[in-house]
Amino acid sequence: MEPNNKDIETQTTPPPSQQQLEIEVAFDYSKRAQWLRAAVLGANDGLLSTSSLMVGVGAIRKDVKTMILAGIAGMVAGACSMAIGEFVSVYSQYDIEMAQIERECKVNRVEKCVLEAKRKRLPSPAKAAVASGVAFAVGAVVPLMAAAFIRNYVVRLGVVVGAVSIALLGFGALSAFLGKAPLVKSLARVLIGGWIAMGITFALTKLVGCIGL
Fold first, then answer.
1. Which of 200, 134, 194, 131 lies closest to 166 in space, CA to CA?
2. Exposed, middle or buried, 137 (CB in 10 Å: 0-12/13-18/19+)?
3. CB 89 within 8 A of CB 146
4. Residue-level pLDDT at 23
5. Quick one: which of 13, 74, 129, 141 is 20 to 30 A from 1 by CA?
6. Contact 164, 29 (CB under 8 A)
7. Cα 5 from Cα 187, distance rounded (Å)
């Protein structure tokens, strides 16, 4: 007796509810990966921006107080800038996607509960702003802590560069893991880029200080 085709289709095709669940789980993991990657990039930005600012100020002012104050100012300003920029950017994306969802629901005559479910899946501008600002501040803490308790100028600069280099390697490795990129190339790119940024900032600030502008 030959099996019924309908029975075979029923056995091989998972129920719609299961398919929907798999799509939702995949979507959630994808969204989490995007948030984690954004947090890593924000922390890396805070690390490099603050350390470059501190090294640049340290090129003309050797006391630890001035360097720390410059780093704190850079951390606060950078975190606020990142948070506001992320809020505006994500809110713009939210408005565009929400308008598109509403148009699709009107065309397809979707119920309000479905519209609400789709709205909840969109990224939150407030959460994005907080995450971006906090990530920047976390990265900025590294050079601040490295320089806070060292009085000798040369040693302090060396410790800041060393601590930032180690942190850059950590962020580079995490970025490579999230982006499925080659580890060595990612580490080299992040580390050399950080050294170039700090070197240029130090050299130009030193030059400006020497010519008396």
1. 194
2. buried
3. no
4. 41
5. 13
6. no
7. 55
> 62: which residues sit within 8 A by CB, 6+ positions away?
153
**Alpha helix segments (H runs only) across the chain:** 5-12, 16-58, 64-108, 112-121, 125-147, 153-179, 183-211
List, for residues 120-143, the tens digit of each pLDDT value: 777 778 888 888 899 999 999 999
106-to-71, 94, 114 alpha-carbon distances in Å: 52, 18, 12
- What pLDDT digit, counting tens, does each position of 69-119 carry? 999 999 999 999 988 988 898 888 878 877 777 777 776 665 666 666 666
Hey, is 143 helix, strand or coil? helix
For residues 159 and 32, the answer to whether their CB atoms sit within 8 Å is no
Contacts of 51 (CB under 8 A, 6+ apart): 71, 142, 143, 160, 161, 164, 194, 198
Residue 3 DSSP code: P
- Look up residue 130 and give its DSSP letter: H
User: What is the amino acid identity at position 82?
Assistant: M
Which of 7-11, 23-27, 55-59 tops mean pLDDT? 55-59
The pTM for the full model equals 0.73
Phi-psi region of 109 (alpha: psi -120 to 50; beta: other; left: phi over 0): left
**Residue 180 corresponds to which tokens in the numbers above?**
């499925």
**HSE-up of 7 (CA within 13 Å, CB side)?**
3
Q: How many whole angstroms separate alpha carbon 139 and alpha carbon 93?
A: 26
